[in-house]
Amino acid sequence: MEGGVHPLPDTSAFRDCFALTWKNPYVLRLAFSAGIGGLLFGYDTGVISGALLYIRDDFKAVDRHTVLQESIVSMAVAGAIIGAAVGGWANDRHGRRSALLAADFLFFIGAVIMAASPGPATLIVGRVFVGLGVGMASMTSPLYISEASPAKIRGALVSTNNFLITFGQFLSYLINLAFTKVPGTWRWMLGVAGLPALLQFSLMIFLPESPRWLFRKGREEEAKAILRKIYPAEDVETEIQDLKDSIDKEIREEGTSEKINFRKLWQTKTVRRGLIAGVGLQVFQQFVGINTVMYYSPTIVQLAGFASNQTALLLSLVTAGLNAFGSILSIYFIDRTGRKKLLLISLFGVAVSLGLLAGIFHREWYTRGCPSKFGWLALIGLGLYIISFSPGMGTAPWIVNSEIYPLRFRGVCGGIAATANWISNLIVAQTFLSLTEAIGTDMTFLLFGIVSVVGFFFVIVFVPETKGLPIEEVEKMLELRPLQYKFWEKKKRPEGTMEEEEKLDKKNQGV
Predict the structure, then answer these.
(1) Which contiguous run of DSSP H or E holds residue 369?
(2) Would you say 403 and 145 are in contact if contact means Cβ atoms under 8 Å apart?
(3) The domain made up of 13-253+268-508 is a member of CATH 3.20.20.150
(4) Where are the domains of the chain?
(5) Average pLDDT, the chain
(6) R_g of the chain, CA atoms, integer Å
(7) Predicted model pTM
(8) What are the tens digits of pLDDT across the range 251-304?
(9) DSSP assignment of 59-120, as one string?
């Protein structure tokens, strides 16, 4: 890409990622153990959509007041805002592994409180605890995976975290269906989340800290031992030297995120450019309306004319399955197509499907639970939306944010971006039902569609391509280019690049 070191087109990353199963299972173990945080993230954000149907049945006040419904859903998001903000500090001060262990503890406590809730108020308290865990895990899991992955397959491995998020949402719908006839319905749905939290806590106790965090803290020998397990023998010394050079540069600049000066952070060119791209992506991810679908998909299905709770849950399971399938597509394409192109393709599809949904809901056929022969059109629109969103906007913002910041600021900047994501999430979750009542479902979807068009142009201008770049080289790329719209052009690599890449550069000079 213009303005920085660019990788060759790589079609083998997907194959190499799965070859780790027998070549280097250690890397895969790190990725999937940390990725359970994504599973919990997905489960706890998805399970409420089905549980809410039964909570309304048990607590009539919740059924009567839309604000209570929105609060039960969105208080987890409010907790996630705090969790993401605290998580950024905790990641830099105490390490990625410690932050994940703290998140597991919060997940478990929240699950127990929710399962035992005697009323809406206690339920909301439990949702806040779960939200704290979600916020910490949402930024820590991809960061840990990113820092413990070889550059060539980093995108695919971080995408496994996003697959586990979507699988967690799919699993939550399966659990919802499994407990529809069981006494206590929603209590079981919400309480089951404590089990994967215990599993991850048990696994992470025996796993190492991020090697890059250890290097930053002066624990070089520990870091080198882990890097030697992650990288092939012929690559590991180069990786160690690149990391050492990066740390030496940071020390010379006296940069640290433990005693962070936010004014100085913003004045640092590479950090500012990274934050504009990273925070912008996280905000657009939410304001194109994804979590209205994930939190309220059964309610949307009922708006489309399917009255039964069980039918609504079953149809919503299809959207969750499409979301998980889209994450698998991301694992295949993210290191092949690149982050930026995948984002643009995704946003184009999202804009088209939201326009379709706005047109479908424009008619007066849709009132909650009223049968309609046109309801299937709304389901097609939802399906198109999910399959467009999931491979690009669903995964790439988290991947870019795990790659784009200098090491000394990676925790705090990741926390800022994740906090922006959850604040945007809260705004959307807290206003969706009220918006549909105030301006109609059709105009609400149209509003999200307009935002997705704006997001499309934002990606063209401000988001760099980080595919295949060693994390230490991303900073060099940001130093050279403030705007990223000519991302299809390529320049020469510095001295020391492989001969075949130099030949490709010479060929592209005339483009």
Answers:
(1) none
(2) no
(3) no
(4) 13-253+268-508
(5) 79
(6) 23
(7) 0.74
(8) 666 544 455 566 777 777 888 888 999 999 999 999 998 877 665 566 666 655
(9) -HHHHH-HHHHHHHHHHHHHHHHHHHHHHHHHHHHH-HHHHHHHHHHHHHHHHHHHHT-SSH
